[in-house]
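User: Please predict the structure of the protein below. I'd like the answer in structure-token form so I can feed it into my own downstream comparison script.

Assistant: Understood. Taking the following sequence of 207 residues as input:
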Amino acid sequence: MTTRTLAVVSGGLSVPSSTRLLADRLTTATVAALKDRGEDSTVEVVELREHARDLADNLVTGFANKALRTAVDTVTGADGLIAVTPIFSASYSGLFKTFFDVLDKDALVGKPVLLGATAGTARHSLALEHAVRPLFSYLRAVSVPTAVFAATEDWAGAGGIDRALAGRIDRAAGELADLVAGRPVSARPVDPFADPTTSFEDLLNGR
């Protein structure tokens, strides 16, 4: 059985943190999905709040100390990455962005990434698509199709989690496991309107 390494970056600032809670849920689901695909895994978590001063020092000096260097190596050396940020002012947190700013520009090229975010209200959910996903596209990472957002109310279901959120977590974890294991991401339903060879008349008639 092949052993894959997963790095988990949690940008939560408080303890306990809903951001870390989502990161843990995504990690557990991904480990299970990899096991279903015949892959073993090891997990290393990077809590960014522990490196806040290290990151500030790196920005002004250009050098990472030993603790930050270890965190960076954990992320860049992993087979897959789970990255979760709290949403502040409709975007990722400054601490989260700073960590990815200090990485080498080519450090995440081709790396499978599962994106997650948390906030107090669902009004911030689109931040994953207009802020977080573009960041990782710029870094040329390979983000899985399903990004997972959790608002405060999503933790109120049976077992401490909303049923819909649990489903999104499992779907995203499966997509990350597919990429890490070297498989194509599970096929999505085909959009017939995206097929240029089918006439509009045939589409209207269900052909």
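That's the full token string. Residues 2-204 form a domain with the Rossmann fold fold (CATH 3.40.50.360).
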